[in-house]
Automatic annotation (TrEMBL):
<comment type="similarity">
    <text>Belongs to the MAPRE family.</text>
</comment>
<keyword id="KW-0493">Microtubule</keyword>
<dbReference type="InterPro" id="IPR020472">
    <property type="entry name" value="WD40_PAC1"/>
</dbReference>
<dbReference type="GO" id="GO:0005874">
    <property type="term" value="C:microtubule"/>
</dbReference>
<dbReference type="GO" id="GO:0008017">
    <property type="term" value="F:microtubule binding"/>
</dbReference>
<dbReference type="Pfam" id="PF00400">
    <property type="entry name" value="WD40"/>
</dbReference>
<keyword id="KW-0498">Mitosis</keyword>
<dbReference type="Pfam" id="PF00307">
    <property type="entry name" value="CH"/>
</dbReference>
<dbReference type="InterPro" id="IPR036322">
    <property type="entry name" value="WD40_repeat_dom_sf"/>
</dbReference>
<keyword id="KW-0853">WD repeat</keyword>
<protein>
    <submittedName>
        <fullName>Uncharacterized protein</fullName>
    </submittedName>
</protein>
<feature type="region of interest" description="Disordered">
    <location>
        <begin position="150"/>
        <end position="207"/>
    </location>
</feature>
<dbReference type="InterPro" id="IPR040324">
    <property type="entry name" value="WDR44/Dgr2"/>
</dbReference>
<feature type="domain" description="Calponin-homology (CH)">
    <location>
        <begin position="15"/>
        <end position="117"/>
    </location>
</feature>
<keyword id="KW-0206">Cytoskeleton</keyword>
<keyword id="KW-0132">Cell division</keyword>
<dbReference type="InterPro" id="IPR036872">
    <property type="entry name" value="CH_dom_sf"/>
</dbReference>
């Protein structure tokens, strides 16, 4: 249907200048754009395609009012869908175009102009104003970029004069000026909608126009050359800053050695080198040398961190917390001056203000000189003032009654005829009381606590079973990765421990909290940390095998499910990367609009899902060369209420067969999406997850969902219960409010950070002592529940 095969990289289309592109766009779409970058919204591209193939583009769905890069994506989705329907073999690089960079949008429009010419563009009547007004904000867009004679850059006077003789619509090809009927006196609306062309003035010769065009092209080439030179200089700068940073870290380790004087002298040199031209201190770390596309540049002018906390001009994060002498010396050097430096009262006041820090997320204000009271190695994507709930007396009864008051008829009926919750009458002190909400047939009403492990010092943020079910890996605030081996000895007591009491391995190397882990099928382990690294381990080795350095903290990591040579990492620098482990390098990466907080592979390895800070999930297709290409985007947020703007995505989990994926967010909701059409299947409610990185998990058979909570409970849902509930009392059909819960963390650290089911292979390895009336296939996938809490305690519960 379309002709685009003749457009190669050496085609003359790619040598068309900026002015010619703008003139073509403005005349085709009746606009007054002044920059090629203004086409990055995708709306202009949709209109041009509609002018070539009338009626094929749903112009009513085009958003002309989009002003954010993630809002542009919807327009490109429409464009790519029409390309597919028309069998146009052209992949749109959405992630590049939405950034609004000149070169990317120029090349796309150069190709587009050639495609327009090959497919008979401009030979049909086309009312751009009427088509644009069908979309959202089309009329306002026409007023903002009002079309004038001569295109972009015309003055107001030329605009007025050029509207004196407009042409209502473009003449079809083949007609002559003499054959056209003389137009009647145009109205004001027809004047504005007219498509006109500007003739060169009599005083301007063709030679002068050609000369100006050549000069313009020469300047554009020179600009591109300078851009390439700047990019090379930035890479060289980053390289040497990285080396200086390595030296600084090495000197910190040698500071207490016999060469203390030499070390101090080198430290002084580094401090002088790290001063910026305006006298402010800058860090040697690589996150200070990011490009203009990175997230942190949006805060450079205000000297703020991306989390909303003002950045002070002193880098104390590199000073170990236990190094009291050096921290004290640094504080003195900041708060005092030598005798030669006399300052007035006004400057002293300004100096004191420089140490006042306000956390914009929580409103907390404190003096940075009192930093000893604030740990420097905290998990920085959490609020500084988060405190676990202290009072939870009779929490199981308060859970249901503590929800927000509902006044609907069905809510009143539920309260009137509410059945009493069943409780477990434990035979010993290890029995666990289980509550339920909107659920008649309980499945987990017989739970017992069989083991407690307390080797971690500090919060456990992540844990995961190996593929063979023989080991559990845990990591958290103490930056130590521990591997626990399943106890496979014969059962000697009624409640036999699931794990051996001592860790099988304890890996040290990270310097900040471990926040995510991943197993390969050959028992390699990847650990992601806030120290800007991902480390590779193996259960047969005691040392780290490799360190993958990142520009910023890494909240997510995942092995490729089909090929252990590759893994995915999500970084706070807004980039998701696929790494080649043997080569130790990045194979491909994609840029996201905001900070990445979760990322994972599809079980087939052909797709990647990335969760963002504001509740969006972006899906990418992965080809055989591990290159990621944008596919689609979904929003995980409520349509109304306080969280309608979207909250952080805390976890993404696929069902074992890969037909659904579950997204956990900080609005205390979990949403189940279908992989076939990316529509929402179900929403799970009941837990409390407002601040922390708490992630829901599936059982190995995919029939149950389990998640921890900030109120100290573990919650369990049936995945498909909402789909089979059709009664009057069930409420909305895509909601699942039926769950069971039990307390797994007591005050004062009453937060369950991780909860998961042990896989069937773990249940098979551990002698379970099933009764004759129990089915091993039913019990295997949910027989053991493992939870981790804010105080570093691991608990194992067994289902009877």
């Amino acid at each position: 249907m379309s002709s685009d095969q003749a457009i190669g990289m050496m085609d003359g289309a790619y040598f068309v200048g900026r002015k010619e592109i703008l003139d073509w766009v403005n005349s085709t779409c009746a606009l007054g754009l002044t920059k090629v970058e203004q086409t990055c919204t995708g709306a202009v591209a949709c209109m041009i395609l509609d002018s070539i193939f009338p009626g094929k583009v749903p112009m009513s769905k085009v958003d002309w009012s989009a002003n954010k890069d993630y809002e542009y994506i919807n327009n490109y989705k429409i464009l790519q869908k029409v390309f597919t329907n028309l069998k146009i073999d052209r992949h749109i690089e959405v992630d590049k175009l939405i950034r609004g960079k000149y070169q990317d949008n120029l090349e796309f429009m150069q190709w587009y102009k050639r495609f327009y010419e090959l497919n008979g563009g401009g030979t049909r009547d086309y009312d751009a104003f009427a088509q644009r007004e069908k979309g959202k904000g089309g009329a306002a867009y026409s007023q903002k970029f009002k079309f004038t004679a001569g295109g972009a850059g015309s003055s107001a006077s030329s605009t007025t004069s050029s509207q004196a003789a407009p042409v209502a619509k473009r003449r079809p090809a083949g007609t002559t000026r003499s054959s056209a009927k003389p137009p009647s006196a145009p109205s004001s609306i027809e004047k504005e909608r007219a498509i006109v062309t500007k003739r060169p003035s009599d005083t301007t010769s063709n030679a002068e126009v050609e000369q100006l065009t050549k000069e313009n092209e020469m300047l554009a080439d020179a600009n591109s050359t300078l851009g390439a030179q700047i990019e090379g200089l930035e890479k060289e700068r980053d390289f040497y800053f990285g080396k200086l940073r390595d030296i600084e870290l090495l000197l910190q380790d040698l500071e207490e050695s016999d060469h203390n004087d030499t070390v101090k002298s080198i430290f002084n040199i580094l401090q002088i080198m790290s001063m910026s031209p305006d006298g402010r201190k800058r860090s040697m770390s690589s996150d200070e040398t990011t490009t203009d596309e990175d997230f942190y540049d949006a805060h450079d002018d205000e000297r703020e961190s991306p989390l909303g906390t003002a950045v002070v001009p002193v880098d104390l994060a590199v000073i170990p917390e236990n190094d009291g002498s050096r921290r004290e010396e640094t504080m003195r050097s900041m708060t005092t001056s030598d005798g030669s430096d006399s300052r007035g009262d006004e400057e002293s006041c300004k100096t004191d203000d420089a140490f006042v820090v306000r956390n914009k997320d929580t409103g907390e204000v404190y003096d940075i000189r009192e930093l000893d009271a604030h740990p420097v190695d905290c998990y920085t994507i959490f609020p500084q003032n988060f405190e676990p709930p202290q009072d939870r007396e009779d929490s199981n009864e308060q859970h249901i009654q503590g929800e927000k008051t509902k006044t609907s008829l069905k809510a009143r009926l539920r309260l009137t005829f509410k059945k009493k919750d069943k409780t477990v009458k434990a035979n010993d002190n290890l029995g666990v009381q289980v509550g339920a909400s909107n659920k008649e047939n309980r499945e987990f009403d017989s739970l017992s606590l069989v083991q407690t492990l307390s080797k971690h010092s500090g919060t456990i943020w992540t844990m995961k079973f190996s593929h063979d079910g023989a080991r559990l890996v845990t990591g958290g605030q103490d930056a130590i990765l521990r591997v626990w081996k399943v106890n496979m000895t014969e059962k000697t007591t009624q409640h036999r421990p699931l794990f051996l009491e001592q860790p099988d391995q304890s890996y040290q190397g990270h310097t900040m909290p471990i926040v995510d882990v991943s197993w390969s099928r050959s028992n390699f382990i990847l650990s992601a940390s806030m120290d800007k690294t991902v480390r590779l381990w193996h259960i047969s080795k005691e040392e780290c095998l490799h360190v993958f350095q990142h520009p910023d903290s890494v909240p997510a990591v995942d092995f490729h499910p089909k090929d252990d040579r590759f893994f995915l990492s999500g970084c706070f620098d807004n980039k998701a990367r696929i790494w080649n482990i043997p080569d130790g390098c990045v194979v491909s990466y994609v840029q996201t609009p905001v900070m990445i907080t979760a990322a994972t592979f599809h079980p087939s390895g052909s797709r990647v899902v990335v969760g963002l800070l504001h509740g969006q999930c972006i899906l990418y297709q992965v080809n055989n060369h591990q290159a990621m290409n944008y596919y689609t985007q979904i929003d995980c947020r409520n349509a109304r209420g306080a969280t309608r703007k979207g909250r952080k995505v805390t976890g993404i989990e696929f069902t074992p067969e890969g037909k659904f994926f579950l997204v956990s967010t900080n609005d205390s909701r979990m949403r189940l999406f279908s992989v076939d059409n990316y529509s929402r299947v179900c929403k799970y409610k009941g837990l409390r997850n407002e601040y922390l990185q708490i992630k829901a998990r599936f059982s190995q058979d995919g029939e149950h969902v389990i998640c921890g909570s900030e109120n100290g409970n573990v919650y369990i849902w049936n995945r498909s219960m909402a789909q089979h509930s059709t009664s009057f009392m069930s409420g909305k059909q895509d909601r699942n409010n039926s769950f069971e819960f039990f307390t797994a963390a007591e005050p004062p650290s009453g937060v369950v950070t991780v909860a998961l089911f042990a896989p069937a292979s773990t249940y098979a390895l551990a002698p379970s002592g099933l009764g004759p009336d129990q089915d091993v296939h039913v019990e295997a996938c949910t027989g053991y529940i493992v939870s981790a809490s804010y105080d570093g305690c691991i608990k194992v519960f067994q289902r009877h």
